[in-house]
From TrEMBL:
Origin species: Gluconacetobacter asukensis
Transmembrane segments: 81-102, 108-127, 132-150, 156-177, 419-438, 450-468, 475-493, 505-525
Upper classification of the organism: Bacteria, Pseudomonadati, Pseudomonadota, Alphaproteobacteria, Acetobacterales
Any GO CC annotation of this UniProt entry: plasma membrane
UniProt keyword Transcription regulation, yes or no: no
Name of this chain's protein: FUSC family protein
Database matches in InterPro entries: PHBA_efflux_AaeB/fusaric-R (IPR006726)
Keywords: Membrane, Transmembrane, Transmembrane helix
GO MF term (any one): transmembrane transporter activity
Amino acid sequence: MKAMKQGGTGMATALARWIWLPTARPAWLPPGSIAFCLRSWAAVMLALGVAFWLQIDSPASAGVTVMILTQPLRGQILSKALYRMAGTLTGATVAIGLIALFGQDRVMFLGGAALWLGLCVVVGTLLRDFRAYGALLAGYTVAIIGIGCIDRPEDVFNVAIFRVSAIMIGIVSVAVVNDVTGSPTAWHRLAAGLRHGAAEVQRIARDAVNGQDSPDDVTWVSLAGRIMALTSQVSFARTELADSALRMTGARSAMVAMLDMISCSRAISGVLRMDQEVRPTILARVRRRFGDGTPFADEDEASRALEDLLLLEPGAPPLTPAEAYLIERTMALLSYGRWVRDGIRTLEEGRAAPRIAQDVHIARQQDPVLALLNGTRVMVGFTVAALICILSGLPGTTTTLIQVATILTLSITTFDTRAFGMGALIGVPLSTVCALVLDTRILPYGSGMIFFSLMLAPVIFASCLLLIHPRLMPIGLNFGVFFFIVLGLDNFHNYDPTQFVDRNLYYMLSSVILFFALTLAPPSARRRRFRIAMAVCMTLRRQFTGQGDIASPALISRQYDRLLQARTWTGHLPQKPITLRVFDRIVSLGDLNGALARARRHLMRAATIPAVAQPVARTQDMLRTLNLAEAGAPILGQAAHLLAASDTLPPADRETLIGAVSGLFGAARLLDRNARALRHYGILPVPEASR
């Protein structure tokens, strides 16, 4: 009995160690990496076990699906699984249609497949997150199903059914394992990211009001980039919660408010750097009212605070536009702070807080030129690979063409296509070597699913660890996905090494073709940044003609997304002074667009106030007929005139007019700073009289 107790204690200790293994990790591994590897391994083995039990054709597809879907967060897995299923069904339908139309004409079939691949890449380039993956998957599924049946078109329907079945098995296996093991959730990661971002934005806002050193443009844009990156977590978290619509609305509301707080902080830092623009007494009152940055409790408190700051002592000089600008931007900081607080509360509690925006749309900057270029590159690469396979005359080259279409489509939308090319050149041979050793030296000497699972564990763990590392991710993706393809798992497996080598020569050929296809014509960071700059200039031109968007969540999110992309491409260029000056100019022109949009929004509201309707209309006309020879001076004059007229207005109308004055002052400052650039690039033509 004592021995049995000792044995039971030993088993309990071993079980406890296994359960706590994810936390007992080496220091060089990221947190949660071992748990991630264990979940992935369990999901792969569950998927393969079900596929073998059902005896579907090509059970390896179930393992491949798991390795493609494997992600650290539950929401990522569910989101990717959803779009993988949609993309597979779409691609399977198109493949069956192409085979039905051109089953006897290979040239027409391959041409149709190339066009479909290009179209899917264009759509995938314009989309984000796993929506893009779903579009790309719809493209290369046609290659997997259609090209795989090019010699036996009568089997295309059965092949499509078996592929969809294998993918469904992989999806269900991943979902079951992650539900049972309790994988981390995306919405908790989103809430933590929002709270961290809110604390950082509030700290920078407090420093700006107190006159401390302001970060440079790169730091501002980096902070905005971290906030914009949370849109991916919003997309993932939607699949985890029953009340996700309300919670994600709160998250988007908080994100947009944080971007507005960044703009306010930058504006305050800029006006405080100007000498003799703000009286010390006004500045002291603003800082005293701002306090520690705690948001106002309600609208009444905000209105009273604004009225107190606008009220001057008898005999004191009237407020200047610069002082009104400082007051309005500081009050906006506190107002946006309420939006951030209520948005995060809505996300965490699942109940609508008093101040969240219901119809918040976070817009992203699209690059249709890049999308067309990517689509063209895929069509050309696929066509060249098809010609190589046809001219070689080798049997079984359809395998090479399928792999080229798959990896080329997946990797073409990334900026660093060279990394994916190297990933294919390293990952495919590495997976081949591992599969060869396993197929000829290990698997023939054992049997049973337990033995098979233990032998696959090192390969799956290695692939997952490579996937976690950002720089090694392309190698990990190619290694993990191709391993099951190269191993050629089937219901009746053949361990003949000669057949293994013959089968996998075509995969090696595909890795060589992919390497050259992805490294010979990489995208240009300079051209991509140029297109971002052109988008900023065209948006600014529309503002000057009165046709641009007014200030809104979509405008500010698109503005910061442009700046984030410009910073990304700038980072891929030689870090010369001229490179950084171009980036600073893009930032400044983007700020001018935002200032004009904000001024137009407040002026449109002020135009409904009868007492100031005429001067507001003149100001609106002035913004559409600017004379760059005078730059911002006339706008400052109009701002001072409107500021003086605001003294006799009711509090609500006065607040609206102060907002217009603030927008005009910000636009005037930025016009003076960018007048030469506006003339040089022809964004705002100079009138004939001033030439």
